[in-house]
Amino acid sequence: MKLDDYDKEEQFAASVVSSTRMTEERSDAEIREIVLEIDRDMAYAPGQSIGIPIPGPHPQGHDVHFRLYSVADTAPSEPGDKPRLTIAVRRVNYIDEYSGERYDGIASNYLCDLKPGDTITITGPYGYAFEIPEDKTANLLLIGMGTGIAPFRAFVKHLYRDAPDWQGKLRLFFGAHTGLEHVYMNDRRDDFALYYDRETFEAFKAVSPRPGWSDPIAWDYCLEERSEEILEMLDDPKTHVYLAGLEEVRDELDKVFANLMGSTEKWQRRRAELAAGGRWAELLY
Questions:
Q1: CATH 2.40.30.10 at 3-126, yes or no
Q2: Assuming Cys at both sites, which of 18, 124, 157, 169 could form a disulfide with 139, CB separation 3.0 to 4.6 Å?
Q3: What is the location of CATH 2.40.30.10 in the chain?
Q4: What's the chain's average pLDDT?
């Protein structure tokens, strides 16, 4: 589905409550956690996204620039309070490979420059929620990259808050090009530390082996190192797999899982079984 196809007719005003840098100051990657307060009721859940139209005119000639951002938190509110939601935004700047000119990402810089009290317009929510399986002995395999970990942060909090007696395994794999790009899992902010003492929860980090060379995330090493447990989980009919992040995550993981299972055909059959059973969910962009 293209961005132009999303329904933007119903729009909401939202004010910025806070904007906090999540990555280390010495990191080249600036990722901010932005908390928004919405001026009317809007139901949303982990796995869904909101749309943000950025008014122009813009250099490319369009009047409105539209982007989607995943819900990164579903903090409960008191009766009568306005709903709040959180998004994670990475500031994007890039160099045109032909002209050599530097360009600033329209949406990311607009959002990262917001200050508390600023007002923006949002739409949505869109997409399907990452739902907690009814069976509390189900296993959950969560794999994300970059700001793709944001919906998993909301999902893990949601799960252990609403299903505190969860018995199934929950394994979170998070990829980044460098350790300084880890979000919610760094020295400044480790939201998942709340769950490290739970027998069901473990989180693992995957980084590029040569970050300065822009090598791909070392999914193969990170996952193959735990291949025995992962294969056992994939063989278990109670296992659900959730992916979040850039679309390239799916392609990279297809190669890794095919290698783990011994062939591309075996993995394709297994992924088809997961999807057919409603045990495969994606939030990719």
A1: yes
A2: 169
A3: 3-126
A4: 79
